[in-house]
Amino acid sequence: MNEISVNHLLGIQNLTEKDFDLIFNTASQFKEVINRPIKKVPSLRDLTIANLFFENSTRTKLSFELAEKRLSADVINFSTSQSSIKKGETLVDTVNNILAMKVDMIVIRHPHAGSAKFLSQNVNSQIINAGDGAHEHPTQALLDCFSLRERLGDLKGKHIAIIGDIIHSRVAISNIFALKALGAEVMICGPKSLLPKYAESMGVNVEIDLIKALRWCDAVNMLRVQNERMNINYFPSTREYSKLYGLTNEKIQSIRKPITILHPGPINRGVEITSEVADSENAIILDQVENGVAIRMAVIYLLASKIKNISSA
User: Fold this and answer.
1) Residue 230 reports pLDDT greater than 50
2) Do domains 17-136+290-304 and 138-288 have the same CATH topology?
3) Which residues contact 127 (CB under 8 A, 6 or more apart)?
4) What is the CATH number of domain 138-288?
5) Class (C level, CATH) for 17-136+290-304
6) pTM of the model
7) What is the distance between the alpha carbons of residues 104 and 99, in angstroms, rounded to a whole number?
8) Hey, where are the domains in the chain?
9) What is the pLDDT of residues 21-68, one digit of tens each?
């Protein structure tokens, strides 16, 4: 079996072209598994995985937990509300105490950028980054690209637009890295106040006119405004933002071509996207959710295969 080149999944930039192919091919196999009447395989029945979520999460946490259970791993869910970190314990001490209970792998979401990498350098465990601050969210980018490939085929030369709150979005950063690695052309679009000043240095096109971005692209990934990361007002009002950057059926019809529509969730219906568009046949939002389980199964399986002899799917 081919091996993934990394020992941890900390970010997209560490992955090679062969890694992408291996993850996607493995995810395709696991997607078949989760659509069977019996949705579990015994691949990781000897492993224990701890999910450490220091930020609120519904979809990502459930997706990881379901992926782990579909692989027959034992799962521990760590609650920050009951954590000794609130009593002053360091992150490394907390994780080492968990590892002392013979846990094999850590999935971590943390509000501080670099936390996953820091852990990988200071504890003896495989680490999967489930989102670190506004830095990266690698499994989201992998499932987005996997979903796009299912709909569009090879992404080389395809035009993919990312619309919305780019500056606060770990999804945007990871998607840019992944899409460019797969040969796609990327455009970011939003109010100037929500676009990073360093954007062009990342090799992406920058646009502030939503209609121009829609005319350019083959697919669009709509991001929500991340109010929880804002300590100032980045635009006058939600109503004005929605008028200029909300994706509506009227705007899509005005460009006179079909485009594939993604959204990482949670959706703020009526703000960045209308219900009519989110529920349309060109939207692959629920496909992303299904593919999220398959991609996370693939990542966990491939990383675990480097440390243990595990049975095949």
Assistant:
1) no
2) yes
3) 8, 9, 10, 105, 106, 108, 116, 119, 120
4) 3.40.50.1370
5) alpha beta
6) 0.93
7) 7
8) 17-136+290-304, 138-288
9) 999 999 999 999 999 999 999 999 999 999 999 988 889 999 999 999
